[in-house]
Amino acid sequence: MIKRHLNAAGLLTGTALSFVLAGSAMAAETPITIVINQSPWFPGFQSVVELYEETTGNTVDLDVNPFAGSLEKQRTAVRTDQSPFDLLIMNAGFFVEFYKGGFLDPLTDIDPDFKLSADIYDFDESVCWDATSMSVTCGGDGKLLSVPVNPNILILHYRSDLYEEKGLKVPKNWDELMANAKVLNDPPRMYGISQRGQRGAFDVTYDVFPYIWSFGGGIFKDQKAGDFTITINSPETLAGMETYIKLAREVGHPSTAGQTQTNVIQNMATGKAGHIMSVLSPGLFDDPNQSAVVNKVNYAPTLASKDHEAATPLGHWLAGVPKNVPDDHKKAALAFLNWFQSQEAQEAYARAGSAPVSRAVLEGPMSDTQEFRWMKAMAKAIPTAKLTFLIPESSQVLAVTELRLNEAIGGQLELKDALNTAAKEIAEIMSNAGYDAPTLPDLE
Length: 444
Known about the structure:
The protein contains 17 helices and 14 strands. The protein has 444 residues and is of the alpha/beta class.
């Protein structure tokens, strides 16, 4: 049966337990342990793991941790003689350090017949790594190192009941969002929008990407092409951040700089936000035990600016197999990943309240129902999704951006000063790591 540690909640039901016990005699694989983070989509993953146990009789141990705790456990595990974890659930912000460090076994080295299902998104080719060119790519000598387990992209959530009442149209750009948010803004009863601005491990930085990318900005010019010119203090990034801050100050929460992801989601669930740009939590919003807005929230892709298309950051999660686990554990981990890609598993994942990684499910019949109305927005947004960091030094860069962006949002630093300071600090990190990372002139 599933064993859980730290923040994991809930126990197997009697029915589920009986399935596991009944199936244990036919279990074909070695028990495996998965290290994973506690997040809004975790209950759905937990439910699918339980279904896997019921279906196969195999045993899975979930080691559940806060975001930073899970990362540190993974870093330690791959450097020991034998990892205690057979699957690492890696975040988009940090997976490259495990790829580049050579800590994962290519999945086709474990089983030459293993493939990523044609229905499963590759999320900007993040499932593959070319160890020769040291690049994220499925072309050339790129090998399959992981399987996606959750999309975790930002999409727009809006109060569809109030849109209908006020005669509003779903926005396609930031100006239209501002106009709609002004109509719904009635503080302190309701804020036109609630945004995450809290400093953390990958918090405010993640949530500003749709703004800065949609104006042509970013932190680096083109990581995939190997161009590490630092653009966080470019006029384009400035324009994106000005849009974020304008929304926060004119129609947003009065303490945006202190808002966590949980705060933002709860603001929507309790009826205090007209809009949020967030990862998906449909199970929460339509649960009458947790939500005051059941069937009143709808979804749309992230927004464009006048001159640039919309883009959403990949904060997705990938499952990889460490090299330093026994062969029978590797085989068992692969058995789980193979099953996880199935239509049965992906549909069950959606029914449990989490977003599947299967195109066939997101674009299939379930998307036409009220319960799964979020699927169409997710399917439209995923093709615009981009990787945020492709360097092992991402955690160092994030320490800078989390601090400086939070200071700008909170008013401790003027925005231009915050971006100029961040550029200098990132340049030092990149220089010390041996990168060619030119800088731009300071914003005046």
